[in-house]
Design brief:
Elements lengths: L7 E2 L29 H11 L3 E5 L2 H4 L4 H9 L4 E6 L7 H12 L1 E6 L10 H12 L3 E4 L8 H10 L5 E3 L11 H11 L5 E4 L2 H4 L11 H11 L4 E2 L6 H4 L5 H11 L4 H17 L1
Parallel strand pairs: 1-2, 2-3, 3-4, 4-5, 5-6, 6-7, 7-8
Helix pairs in contact: 4-5, 7-9
Length: 280
């Protein structure tokens, strides 16, 4: 399957070749990708299926807060990629790490996680998000399915209305648990114009095999709430690990072929929104 649309993969993870582990050390007990997953391996998938650019997401389940591989890869492949760094809001030195990543490695995003107490609306998180705002980069808010944080995210979005925020994985939206509560939380945040939805739950939120029919109505409800202009697609590469084996091509064709989206909606979700957020 190939398409002539401008498609940007807003959510691939990349892993250095095992031969480079001395250069890019892993955490203890890392989650292995299950398939070759270097930046070059990703690019091969992208080329095969007509995806033009990528937003590398730091793999904290493999590297923790060591963003070196994403940073090096972003700088090396800046003509077709940018990156999102995962940093600790409780480490003041990470403010400088973010500035270095943005100014010297072409990184264009921060993965905004909660602090050591599990909170978002805290002094340490606000400090790091303000730094991202000052550097004019996007915050990818990643709190898994902790809906207790929704009010805090809403406060942060209102207080930093010039900061673009993307809800990673739509709070792990799925069809088995907390489905309606999650959708209501997303619809609440959709009222804020600087909040966006990353529609990566279509595969890992499903309890069925591809084409994941059970996730079609929830995805469409999110798209309706945010509008396509504030929704982005991501592949969840490497798919052996992050999308239960649903292939790279299927993660894409879920949006091009299965959801019944119009051409203009596809163009926004698959490319234009991501271009505005990470490449403009």
């Amino acid at each position: 399957m190939r398409t002539t649309m401008n498609i940007i993969d807003a959510h691939p993870h990349i892993y250095a070749d095992p031969s480079e582990q001395d250069k890019y050390p892993t955490i203890d007990d890392p989650w292995h990708p299950g398939e070759p997953s270097t930046a070059e391996d990703l690019k091969s998938k992208m080329d095969e299926f007509g995806v033009s650019r990528a937003v590398f997401i730091q793999t904290s389940t493999y590297y923790g807060h060591n963003n070196r591989y994403v940073m090096d890869s972003t700088r090396k492949y800046s003509e077709w990629a940018t990156g999102v760094a995962t940093l600790s809001p409780d480490d003041p030195e990470h403010l400088d790490v973010l500035e270095d990543a943005v100014n010297n490695y072409s990184v264009r995003g921060l993965r905004g996680t909660s602090d050591q107490n599990g909170e978002i609306n805290s002094a340490n998180v606000r400090r790091l998000w303000r730094k991202a705002r000052d550097l004019d980069v996007v915050v990818n808010c990643m709190v898994m399915d902790d809906l207790e944080r929704v009010y805090e995210i809403e406060l942060m979005a209102r207080q930093h209305d010039d900061l673009n925020i993307v809800i990673d994985h739509c709070f792990m939206l799925n069809t088995v648990r907390k489905t309606e509560e999650t959708l209501l939380a997303l619809e609440r945040l959709a009222k804020l114009p600087n909040v966006h939805a990353k529609l990566t739950s279509g595969t890992h939120g499903s309890s069925r095999i591809y084409p994941h029919e059970d996730m079609h109505p929830p995805l469409k409800r999110v798209i309706e709430a945010f509008t396509p202009d504030r929704c982005v697609w991501g592949s969840n590469f490497p798919n052996a690990l992050w999308s239960k084996g649903t292939s790279y091509a299927q993660n894409l064709s879920l949006f091009t072929d299965e959801l019944g989206l119009s051409q203009s909606d596809q163009e926004a979700i698959l490319g234009k929104t991501a271009e505005r957020l990470w490449f403009s």
